[in-house]
Specification:
There is one protein chain. By secondary structure, the chain is an all-alpha fold. It folds into 2 domains: 187 residues, Growth Hormone, Chain: A (Up-down Bundle); 190 residues, MFS general substrate transporter like domains (Growth Hormone, Chain: A), CATH 1.20.1250.20. Helix content is 83%, strand content 0%. It has 17 helices and no strands. The protein is globular. It holds the Pfam family MFS_1. This is Major facilitator superfamily (MFS) profile domain-containing protein. Keywords: Membrane, Transmembrane, Transmembrane helix. It comes from Actibacterium mucosum KCTC 23349.
């Protein structure tokens, strides 16, 4: 493939999409947790009733990811990023107007469509298609900025929920999507399409590309290791306060340590951005898996010294911060960029399903053996994921 020189527009376009992804995750993903206290107080619905909507939206997003991937391969990734923010604003408006639990579910199903076509998967597939080998640096920059989504969404939700109630807060998020996310996405897509690398504009993927990829062991190793990493993280963050307090840490310390996980994700991405030319993608992936194992081991012994929960937060945050970066990069390097959208879309099913099911699994484990059962299960999951990263490296050498 012949490459044209990188243009200034590429850099600006990537930063624009980074802002768009920050808005997307803040408005369509973290908004539920950010408004949960207000929602529970004002709606009268239980946590389970409220959480059913976001859970269904995540599962719908997983089901739609392969479809979005195929659209990216056909050159429509930019359209998804440009137009789905408007659908997302509609979903938020439906939630804001909800008068019944069924109405609430409908709003989240609309957001599930948006999650399936306007978040990281589509953005990274679009960048990979447009930038080729330059996509790794672009993906790092996008995740670096979007890592602040929760840090922005939680305080915004708290302030808006207190001042305007949950309905007013959701309307505010909808307006922000229309005013900020939609324009920056459209601008970024236009610039990237104009400055795309030569040879990246074909809209046809040879038939059988996905089937051939799925016959390779690397495909299933990628699905397994990254799927288990996301399951581990989702399980931990769902029960993080319970787990931290079980070590003997006071509430204030537990809250502070939990708040360090997000910044640690960004810190991990900053380190990767600074050293990206000195490390291989598979090497980083192995370190990510090892970091998660060490994090879980640290949390298991934190009862001896509760301050170790801060070490856990740093290791876990930095590790999971790299997971979202490395999966598309490793996928492109091991399975190729041809048909990347469809391949990446199918690969996303296991991580997304793992994230959706982890809280349910955690609830069952807690009923069986309280915090210890969750911790040991999470350690086993992290350990298996790490072993799969080692096999992934061996598979590439054999390949």
């Amino acid at each position: 493939m012949t490459q044209t020189p990188k243009t200034k527009g590429d850099s600006l376009a990537v930063w624009l999409l980074a802002v768009g992804q920050t808005m997307a995750y803040g408005s369509f993903y973290y908004v539920f947790a950010a408004l949960l206290v207000t929602l529970e107080a004002e709606t009268g619905w239980t946590k389970g009733q409220l959480a059913l909507g976001p859970t269904l939206s995540i599962l719908l997003a997983a089901a739609l990811a392969p479809v979005s991937g195929r659209l990216v391969d056909r050159g429509r990734g930019g359209d998804l990023l440009s137009y789905l923010p408007f659908v997302g604003a509609l979903g938020l408006a439906v939630l804001a107007l909800a008068q019944s639990h069924a109405h609430w579910i409908i709003g989240w199903l609309i957001l599930g469509v948006v999650q399936g076509g306007a978040l990281y998967e589509t953005c990274f597939a679009f960048l990979t298609r447009r930038l080729g080998e330059q996509a790794r640096a672009a993906i790092i920059r996008v995740t670096l900025v979007a890592g602040f989504a929760s840090a922005l969404s939680y305080p915004a939700g708290a302030v808006l929920g207190e001042a305007l109630g949950w309905r007013g807060a959701l309307w505010s998020f909808a307006v922000a999507v229309l005013v900020v996310m939609a324009p920056v996405n459209i601008w970024g897509v236009i610039r990237l399409r104009r400055n795309a690398l030569a040879g990246q504009t074909s809209t046809e993927t040879p038939p059988g590309t996905l089937a051939r990829a799925m016959r390779r062991p690397a495909f299933w190793l990628i699905a397994g290791c990254f799927g288990l990493m996301w399951m581990n993280h989702s399980l931990i963050v769902t029960y993080v306060m319970v787990l931290f307090q079980s070590t003997g840490a006071p509430v204030a310390m537990a809250v502070l340590a939990a708040s360090c996980i997000g910044p640690s994700q960004v810190a991990g991405r900053v380190v990767l951005m600074l050293g990206q030319h000195r490390v291989t993608s598979l090497g980083v992936t192995r370190l990510t898996g090892l970091g998660s194992v060490l994090a879980m081991a640290t949390l298991l012994v934190a009862g001896v010294e509760p301050l170790l929960i801060f070490v856990f937060a740093g290791l876990q945050g930095a590790s999971v911060g790299l997971v979202s970066v490395m999966r598309p990069v490793v996928t492109a390097e091991l399975l190729g960029r041809e048909g990347f959208g469809a391949i990446s879309g199918v690969l996303s099913i296991m991580p997304t399903a793992g994230m959706a099911l982890a809280p349910v699994i955690g609830a069952g484990l807690y009923a069986l053996g309280a915090e210890a059962a969750i911790l040991w299960f999470a350690l086993i999951v992290a350990g298996v994921a790490f072993v799969l990263t080692l096999m992934l490296r061996a598979n590439m050498r054999a390949g």
